[in-house]
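Async update (no meeting this week)

Hi team, since we skipped the sync, here's where things stand on the single-chain job. The sequence we agreed to prioritize is pasted below, unchanged from the tracker. I ran it this morning and attached the output directly underneath so nobody has to dig for it. Comments welcome in thread, and please keep replies under the output.
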Amino acid sequence: MVFEGILESMADGITGGKWTLREYVKIGEKRILKTATSPLIDNILNENLGNEVALSVVKTLKGNRIFAIRETNGEVTKLKGSVIGAISFLRFMATLIPLNITLYIFLAIFEDGGIGLVIGIILSLLWFILPIKARIRDKKALNALD
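Output:
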């Protein structure tokens, strides 16, 4: 999603590791809750309080991630590609354990291997697609302000 308008206010930020967390960022009349972004983009947000900006935001289970900002002068700052790649890799790795558990559960339920194997493989493939879909969504958000 792209939000455009005057950056009116922000909650105090907490920087931990590679992310700065804020309870909200208010742009125009819209309040974006539970935001996370890189310290670089967070500094640019601070510099542009009261100015017209555009934010590229992705909604996640944990809140909203700000992937890019376009300032009044037209300059676009994005998260580094390596950060997006690391997020994608961690998502992929996090799916491997549930994927295997799902397969084994259905194999255990249907001991003959026929229908249990088929259901387990189908569910595993659906589980495997989720991080790929998220990677595509993140890439679109990263390039939304270009």
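Quick observations from my side:
Strands lie at 2-10, 13-16, 19-27, 30-37, 52-60, 63-70, 76-78.
Residues 2-78 form a domain with the OB fold (Dihydrolipoamide Acetyltransferase, E2P) fold (CATH 2.40.50).
Reply here if anything looks off.
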